[in-house]
Write a structure and sequence with these properties.
By secondary structure, the protein is an alpha/beta fold. The chain folds into 4 domains: 100 residues, no CATH class; 89 residues, no CATH class; 40 residues, no CATH class; 190 residues, 3-Layer(aba) Sandwich (Rossmann fold), CATH 3.40.50. It is built from 19 helices and 13 strands. It has an 8-stranded mixed beta sheet, with helices on both faces. A 3-stranded antiparallel beta sheet has the order 1-3-2, with helices on both faces. A two-stranded antiparallel ribbon has the order 4-5. Helix 2 packs across helix 4, helix 6 runs antiparallel to helix 7 and helix 13 packs parallel to helix 14. The longest helix has 26 residues. The two termini are 17 Å apart.
């Protein structure tokens, strides 16, 4: 499914843009008014988010790709219904052309079965004795719609009188045939009569073969009984069948699971689909995709003002990307927003962390200081009072052994500084480890979460799982290593984009 955002002066212009690019089957996910904040020269505008299935978009692109500029303009002037009819007609014409282009492989000539002469079979006593099974001899002759059949099964006795009777009945049926046809059919019955006679005179041989057959049957019964004792499961259940997911929604359950959404949250979304989407629309994937996209948009909480607050403190475990994220945020404030900022650190344990931050601050031309004791905050309050924002890096805090490492907590900003605490979470962590860590940091009054290393994994379901678990709004995303390019503030549409894999990352580690 494709999800895109459009901005225009009026709703009519936005809808025309959506129809032109996504086609007549696009679904409107959301719409809002922008009042002189950004957009077209700062004027009032509308912002519309729309979605369309990949299949519908491919059909639309196929239908218009061979139209010249004049015909494309005429197509764009069509209403949505007329466009849909045109697209369907183009697809149908293509299908007909494919069928017409298919050439027959071979020409079959019908010949009456009665006129096809088989090779003369060789029957004899030695041949019958060499076989390991008693054959079933059958002759069938169709005479003007009447079927004359003689089937000889093992165990029956066929006397010469019975053979003569069979031949006599057949001859009566042949009365309506020509002399040539009668000759062909009578010759065909001669080997049958010979075979029956041979079996009548060889009763001992038949009994021996029947005994062998019985032994083989008993052996097969034994094998089948052993096979039936093993549990059999030849039917492959669809994804989510054990959890009660219906077949028509199994594709969505599988899609959510593949992107990292855990089973409980995926089942909750499936339940909302069943309750909120009509039964007939649950059978159509585009409607299901659009419903889930809308559901995620409504249930995703993002930070509305990412720059609010003077003191921004970055928390998280080692290796989650705290320092890099802090530098990216500092670049955003200093370079793009032209804010007066300073950078501090309380992390004196990690080797090289102080030197690394100092180098970055020299590049950005912003002041840098190290907090080594709680009293240093009084100096900060006095010396840095004129700055717009102060960013603070922190060490990995071991809350399970805080007695042996009290400085990691004592040197944090005092509560009267009203710090805005950001929790930095790597996308490479599994749900259990991420939840365990944040449960310890919750006592520090976390304001929001920043997700990092989005470019190093294709599973972004942790974003949805994390927010459902802790109700923390999403502040921003760190995509790669480049500073400040690989950094963006969170939007609801971006979350849908990540979960549905709509666009690719533009950096060299693209997802």
């Amino acid at each position: 499914m494709q999800v895109k955002k459009y901005e225009a002066k009026t709703m009519r212009e936005a809808l025309l843009m959506i129809k032109s690019e996504l086609g007549p089957e696009a679904v409107i996910l959301s719409a809002k008014n922008n009042a002189k904040r950004y957009g077209l020269s700062g004027e009032n505008s509308v912002e519309v988010t729309a979605a369309v299935s990949e299949e519908s978009l491919r059909k639309k692109n196929f239908a218009v790709k061979k139209l010249n500029n004049d015909k494309q303009k005429v197509f764009q002037d069509y209403g949505a219904k007329e466009q849909k009819v045109f697209i369907e007609q183009a697809i149908e014409n293509k299908r007909r052309k494919v069928v017409e282009d298919v050439q027959p492989v071979a020409e079959v000539t019908a010949v009456p079965y009665i006129h096809i002469q088989d090779e003369a079979p060789v029957y004899g006593r030695s041949q019958i004795q060499a076989t390991t099974q008693v054959p079933t001899v059958a002759t069938q002759t169709n005479v003007d719609g009447r079927l004359i059949a003689s089937q000889m099964a093992p165990g029956n006795t066929y006397s010469e009188q019975k053979v003569t009777s069979v031949l006599s009945n057949a001859k009566k049926a042949f009365g309506e045939l020509s002399e040539e046809e009668k000759s062909i059919q009578q010759n065909a019955l001669v080997p049958v009569a010979s075979t029956l006679a041979t079996y009548d005179t060889n009763g001992d041989q038949r009994e021996e073969e029947i005994g062998r057959l019985k032994q083989e049957v008993e052996s097969l019964k034994l094998i089948i009984n052993k096979f039936n004792q093993v549990p059999q499961s030849f039917v492959s259940l669809h994804p989510g069948a054990h959890e009660g997911v219906p077949f028509e929604l199994s594709f969505m359950f599988e899609k959510l699971k593949k992107t990292g959404v855990n089973s409980n949250n995926a089942l909750e979304i499936i339940k909302h689909i069943q309750e909120g989407l009509p039964k007939d629309k649950q059978l159509k994937k585009p409607y299901v995709d659009a419903f889930v996209a809308q559901f995620i948009l409504k249930n995703t909480d993002v930070v509305t003002d990412p720059f609010a607050g003077k003191y921004h403190v970055f928390y998280g475990s080692a290796g989650e990307g705290k320092t890099t994220t802090l530098v990216k945020f500092a670049s955003e404030l200093s370079v793009r927003k032209r804010k007066n900022i300073a950078v501090l650190t309380t992390d004196t344990k990690k080797v090289g962390s102080v030197d690394q931050l100092k180098v970055y601050c020299q590049i950005l031309n912003v002041p840098f200081a190290v907090i080594r004791r709680p009293s240093d905050w009084d100096i900060v309050k006095d010396k840095f009072s004129q700055y717009d924002h102060i960013l603070v890096d922190t060490p990995d805090i071991n809350f399970k052994n805080i007695v042996n490492d009290p400085e990691s907590v004592e040197n944090l900003p005092p509560s009267d500084f009203l710090p805005r605490n950001h929790f930095v979470q790597s996308m490479l962590s599994k749900d259990e480890r991420a939840f365990e860590k944040v449960n310890h940091y919750k006592k520090l009054n976390l304001a929001d979460v920043i997700f990092t290393k989005l470019d190093e994994t294709s599973e972004h379901g942790l974003i949805y799982n994390f927010q459902k678990q802790f109700n923390l709004p999403i502040h921003s995303f760190s995509i790669g290593d480049s500073i400040p390019e690989d950094y963006e503030f969170a939007t609801k549409e971006r979350v849908v984009d990540l979960l549905f894999k709509l666009t690719k990352m533009t950096n060299k580690k693209g997802i």
